[in-house]
């Protein structure tokens, strides 16, 4: 298994940046880095991560992925966490094709893509050497 201590430090830094920007009043219970060779073999159709509102855990698939791609997924899932803690209704978010079948959840997903990617970009640009 690849040493992920540098990745973990970057994810902590990204969390600190996003939590300050969005004024989080709590944090996810766990961030779970998942090794899954079967998932990674799916290429562009592989799962990248997820947020579970019941457990308040964030899951990130890390096998055969670049650290920046993992961090971008983390930013996206942090937005879903933020949406949950500020009281946005994300019920149904865990269902297949939720963003294609539900207009409300599509807007939730659009917000996660926009805010997550922009905050990731801002964090990355501020930390370039």
Gist of the model:
By secondary structure, the protein is mostly helical. The model has no long low-confidence stretch (mean pLDDT 91).
Structural commentary:
With 129 residues, this protein is mainly alpha-helical. The protein has a single domain (5-127), classed as Zincin-like, CATH 3.30.2010. It is 54% helix and 11% strand. The chain has 5 helices and 3 strands. The protein has helices at residues 5-22, 37-40, 67-85, 98-101, 103-127, and strands at 30-34, 49-52, 57-61. A 3-stranded mixed β-sheet has the order 1-3-2, with helices on one face. Helix 1 packs parallel to helix 3, helix 1 crosses helix 5 (103-127) and helix 3 (67-85) packs across helix 5 (103-127). The longest helix has 25 residues, at 103-127. It is globular and about 40 Å long.
Element layout with pairings:
Elements: H1 5-22, E1 30-34, H2 37-40, E2 49-52, E3 57-61, H3 67-85, H4 98-101, H5 103-127
Parallel strand pairs: 1-3
Antiparallel strand pairs: 2-3
Helix pairs in contact: 1-3, 1-5, 3-5
